[in-house]
Design brief:
- The protein has 55 residues and is mainly α.
- Helices cover 96% and strands 0% of the residues.
- The chain is built from one helix and no strands.
- The chain has one helix at 2-54.
- The chain is rod-shaped and about 50 Å long.
- The N and C termini lie far apart (78 Å).
Length: 55
């Protein structure tokens, strides 16, 4: 009986650790891609404006 409880506790800890890892990883990746997107938006807008004036 105690082995079943210990297995359940270990699985619960693994699940909690995995969830925390996924959340932190997602926050890091979204922060990294958000900064890249914000940097690329002005360049794209300048390119669109330059294309319309040339046409």
């Amino acid at each position: 009986m105690s082995q079943i409880i210990s297995i359940i506790l270990v699985l619960n800890l693994c699940f909690a650790g995995g969830t925390i890892f996924v959340i932190l990883h997602g926050m890091y990746m979204s922060k990294k891609t958000r900064s890249l997107d914000m940097d690329s938006f002005p360049d794209l807008e300048k390119g669109k404006i330059g294309d319309t004036t040339k046409n």
